[in-house]
Amino acid sequence: MSDIAYVITGAGELTAVPAADTTAVKPGYAVVEVAFCGICGSDVESYRKGIPLPPSISGHEWGGTVISVGEGVESPAPGDRVSKTSAPSCGKCPLCRAGHHADCDRFSARAASSSPATHGAYTRFVQVPASTLVKLPDNVTDEQGALVEPATVALHGVRLRQPGLGGTALVFGLGVIGLFAVQLASLSGAVNVVAVDPDPVRRDAALGFGAVAAFAPDDPALQQRLMDLTDARGADVAYECSGQASVLTSAVPLMRNGGALVLIGAGMEPVQLVPALWLSKGLDVQTSLAHTRDEFDITVTLLSRGLLKTKGMTGTTVGLSRLPEVFADLAKKATSLKVLVDPRG
Ligand SMILES: [Zn+2]
Ligand SMILES: [Zn+2]
């Protein structure tokens, strides 16, 4: 199983490195043949700006089939189809002992940041701790397996601040995470979900996933429609999934007093704020880092029951060998739909 893996090493640099050895499976680990790995917007941003992420993050949205498991692994078993989840919290550090599992350094995105893995899943075979895999039921497809991680990012944010039954939610940024946020806001009670993105293809997709209206960010009709829908109160909650730091200011006039702005996208640009505007509205700003391990089980259940839909979310599928040119293209212009990598190609 000698192979190559691609990692982002600098601005415009996607480097082929030798894939980690998967012939000897370590105790507690599983070797998985990757079926599909989604290209995350954060990977493209890291490549474009040359902000190096830990190698294990290059390709973190994936699913596949277990090939072999190490000593002590009861589940999953060889042949099981799985998706990658976040690492469980350590259970031992002071924050875990105080019950703050989501704040553990060993957990989730923070754990991925300190992972010794030399690459993510832009490769054919990976070896990961078996405890970081979630099994997929037969009716969840391999393509959906690669969407479980971004869906769970959206789920975490919506669970942190829900619009409430009858509420109104705004979703900024209609990539896959935003399109899941549209559906999850509806599932958790919103009667109005208003979606915002400059890309008309993505706006159409959001309408198909249940948004009542969709606007470009600079469309003056956005505020008018939102006020019409809410008796001039504004949105109960806004989910920022675009990674555009400017949403921190542009969302303020769209929110109701006491509303919540949930930061799911990781904006990297500096932004000028007028704190008094937040204060005068009594806005809550809630950060939402990644996900918790248990939330992946919820995502898989929602997908399996057909309560979360994915039809039309993904666009092209590309073979691993084309990855360098695909990244170069994506850095110039984002595609409307999620690109999946098929490592066998
Ligand atoms: Zn991602
Ligand atoms: Zn801990």
TrEMBL record:
Needed co-factor(s): Zn(2+)
Domain Alcohol dehydrogenase-like N-terminal, chain residue ranges per copy: 27-138
Residue span(s) of domain Alcohol dehydrogenase-like C-terminal: 177-303
SUPFAM superfamilies, alphabetized: GroES-like (SSF50129), NAD(P)-binding Rossmann-fold domains (SSF51735)
InterPro entries according to UniProt: ADH-like_C, ADH-like_N, ADH_Zn_CS, GroES-like_sf, NAD(P)-bd_dom_sf, Zn_alcohol_dh
Listed Gene3D superfamilies: Medium-chain alcohol dehydrogenases, catalytic domain, NAD(P)-binding Rossmann-like Domain
Key words, A-Z: Metal-binding, Oxidoreductase, Zinc
Pfam families in the cross-refs: ADH_N, ADH_zinc_N
Any one GO MF annotation of this record: zinc ion binding
Origin superkingdom: Bacteria
Family recorded in the similarity comment: Belongs to the zinc-containing alcohol dehydrogenase family.
Name recorded for this polypeptide: (R,R)-butanediol dehydrogenase/meso-butanediol dehydrogenase/diacetyl reductase
Source taxonomy: Bacteria, Bacillati, Actinomycetota, Actinomycetes, Streptosporangiales
